[in-house]
Write a structure and sequence with these properties.
- The structure holds 2 protein chains of 2 kinds.
- By secondary structure, chain A is an all-alpha fold.
- Chain A has a single domain (about 10-215), classed as MetI-like fold (Orthogonal Bundle).
- Helices cover about 80% and strands about 0% of the residues of chain A.
- Chain A has 8 helices and no strands.
- Chain A has helices at about 5-45, 50-65, 65-75, 85-110, 115-125, 130-160, 170-180, 185-215.
- In chain A, helix 2 (about 50-65) crosses helix 4, helix 4 crosses helix 6 and helix 5 runs antiparallel to helix 6.
- The termini of chain A are far apart.
- Chain B is an all-alpha fold.
- Chain B has helices at about 5, 10-45, 50-60, 65-75, 90-115, 115-125, 130-160, 170-185, 185-215, 215-225, 230-240.
- The chains are: A mainly alpha, B mainly alpha.
- The interface of A and B includes residues 64 and 189 of A.
Amino acid sequence: MSWDWAYAWQIMPTLLRGVGQTFLVTVLSGTIALLGGLLIAVAGWTGPRVAQVCLRVLVEVTRGVPILVLLFFAFYGLPGAGLRPSAFLTGVVVLGAVYAAYCSEVYRGGLASVPGTTWDAAAALGLPTRVTWARVVLPTVLRANVGALANYIVILYKQTALLFAIGVPVLLTNAQVAGYESFRYLEPFTLAGLLYLLLNLPSVWIIRRVERRVTRGGF
Amino acid sequence: MSTVDELGPYLPNLAAGLLTTAEIAGASILGAAAVAILLGTLRAGRNTPARAASGGAVEFLRGTSVLVQLFWVYYALPSIQGAPRLPPTVAAVLVLSLNGGAYGAEIVRSGLLAVPSGQRDACHTLGLPRRVALARVILPQALGQIVPAFGSLAVDLAKWTSVVSFVSVQDLLYWGNTVRVQTNQTVPVYLLLAGCYLALSGAVALAFRAVEYALPISRARRRAPAPGRPARRAALVRQGRA
């Protein structure tokens, strides 16, 4: 069997719809990951000892179990609890939660490396706690860790392919459906792989530029 | 019927699945280590074409996820004339080794480059052949950084093996899904699965801790716990080397 351009052209619209869904999932899950991770890290930092331990255990479990297991657990387990979210919503939330756990570790490391003198200086200036966090500590942490956080978003983008497992029409799912309908897998999977690769390439370059710009400035 | 009664008959299947997962994970970790050493040393080396080629290979392999690559090798590759139809387990180990190896190559590269350049100069001054310098001086120091980082990659690989259930390899996740369909005990089944994967991740992490502990550089550090120079010199004097 050899490459069929006509067929490749014919399935392109389906694949491009998959690209759209892939981006949508990445943006939504990425937002959950970045904000959720920050929330976990700050809660773990300021909360009581019990909350800290609980959060650590939760984060470690989330990071130690394959995403597929969590995905299936949510997809088949939630209806038993009376909830019936769509596959799309389940996928977005699970991916977001997993990468929130990863990002929380980045934030935690960032918080730990804020020198004690910074807190002292904020206290000496009489800054309220909220201002200290929002204007002093978090900007420092974010600036120093933009690269690591962006890296996780790129990995998240690649892992959206896993949502194939619960039938969310991301790029890989659409490629599989196209191949299944015509019993030709060469063109859909090759094109899907190339599209994943092509869309991923600029991200590395963009991250490097953003990182350079943000970390260079200081205050 | 209680949960234990329902799941009981399937425990041998789940155990067999766990064994399959562990075997694939073990083979992939070894394969990834081999690929990582090959690509990583080329990336850190002096040969420009080899450096460019290995860099391209790393970016290519890291550009897509394991699942996409596995589907390509399993479904698309056989339709190319003359290409082999790989058994699913072989395809899975191949893809996991290559993908993990690409991530590992960066670990090996940065580990090799992190050894202070003075060490290289010293080898040169002493007239050590390049091969000896790499094997006896550079690598033992680089491994102190490479092994822990590769350990956490190995834990990731153990989790990534779960994608093989999509190409009908009967691994832990495959049996978990089968048992869920048969018994409808969704929550207990996946809790059991999560426990198994956590145990597997823990075992892999522990194995790499052991390797790290046995490394020459770790033994040297234990012998001279204070990183200051006088302590090291004292240790060398005691051994009659200085």
